């Protein structure tokens, strides 16, 4: 993981994050100064950022919003104080309301970003300066340390091209914490087609099948959905899932609930995000479970292997669309 240290200094009212990357400073700089790249890691998993204004020059302003799977929004703005091309910049970071006005309950914080060369590549040093001990404690209590760590640990995937990062590795499952896992898979095909394949029944029934020999016999989509599968012609094997759409931002993000039909067990919250580069799409699915036991029980069913079979089939379907 890139982040090597996050520390707070109550005397100097600072929080310092240090992260090392196997990439040159120029590549790290471009990731922080291109809003489309910055969106891929600025928010932690489950709270991705969208930048609506990006004027990174002294006196300029940057506006962004991070949105939770439930649609809650946390908005921020940078007042750009200084920029040293290629090596760093300083901003005044504020929580803002939907109209872009600073929120009085959350004091603004000065943030410095420094990019330095190392023998192995480059280093990010990010220092946040607070106006009081209370402000520092407030931000830490809001989960800033773990949120920053999880956000910056996503940067490795951005510094490489999508194919360098993911191709040939198949479907990967990462444990984020006791309740969350992240599934990633590179899909050869444009984002629009990958989105359609998740939202058009005639396409979905061709690939979302799991092991060979199974068929999707019911596929109803909309604000609510319902899927049913069975093995061959044996109706006794039939099972399925149902849920609701919580958030939909075509063709980038879809958040849905999921529960097994006829079971009393708690369901999951599934956050699907798609990023395209050079004709390939990185599919990221963050799944929230009720607890660790439920997470481990479902992973033990061979979920990752079953998803890989379906995603490989998806690529073949997209090739023919």
TrEMBL record:
Activator of Hsp90 ATPase homologue 1/2-like C-terminal domain sequence ranges: 23-159, 190-318
Pfam family, one: AHSA1
Signal peptide segment: none
Family stated for the protein in its record: Belongs to the AHA1 family.
Protein name: SRPBCC family protein
Organism: Microbacterium memoriense
